[in-house]
Amino acid sequence: MNFMHRDEEVDYYPSRHSPPTPVPPRPVVGRRQKVTIHKQDDFKQPGERYGSWAPDRQERFVRRFADALAHPKVSPELRAIWIDLISKCDESCGMKVANSLNVKPSM
């Protein structure tokens, strides 16, 4: 028996061999509160990580990222989105990637 041979897609849940089980309704318990949810900064940690690298490692990262974005199947819109995301992490990194791709960053 070859376990790697598959005739159909793998679907682990719900199993077609076990009977369907209904989800029991649970009452919601607790107090309802109106609270301001503070927006988190999703770009601070990657920016700090990039800044902690040695300059040669930063250049390798920029070169590899630019090479990946230079692939012919990557659309200009997708390049702009990624450059914008990189720039939010670290502005200099975004500028370096944009310059190596000859793209003007939209900041």
TrEMBL record:
<dbReference type="InterPro" id="IPR018028">
    <property type="entry name" value="Catalase"/>
</dbReference>
<dbReference type="InterPro" id="IPR020835">
    <property type="entry name" value="Catalase_sf"/>
</dbReference>
<dbReference type="InterPro" id="IPR010582">
    <property type="entry name" value="Catalase_immune_responsive"/>
</dbReference>
<dbReference type="GO" id="GO:0042744">
    <property type="term" value="P:hydrogen peroxide catabolic process"/>
</dbReference>
<protein>
    <recommendedName>
        <fullName>Catalase immune-responsive domain-containing protein</fullName>
    </recommendedName>
</protein>
<feature type="domain" description="Catalase immune-responsive">
    <location>
        <begin position="37"/>
        <end position="100"/>
    </location>
</feature>
<dbReference type="GO" id="GO:0020037">
    <property type="term" value="F:heme binding"/>
</dbReference>
<dbReference type="Pfam" id="PF06628">
    <property type="entry name" value="Catalase-rel"/>
</dbReference>
<dbReference type="GO" id="GO:0005886">
    <property type="term" value="C:plasma membrane"/>
</dbReference>
<feature type="compositionally biased region" description="Pro residues">
    <location>
        <begin position="17"/>
        <end position="27"/>
    </location>
</feature>
<feature type="region of interest" description="Disordered">
    <location>
        <begin position="1"/>
        <end position="28"/>
    </location>
</feature>
<dbReference type="GO" id="GO:0004096">
    <property type="term" value="F:catalase activity"/>
</dbReference>
<dbReference type="GO" id="GO:0042542">
    <property type="term" value="P:response to hydrogen peroxide"/>
</dbReference>
<dbReference type="GO" id="GO:0005777">
    <property type="term" value="C:peroxisome"/>
</dbReference>
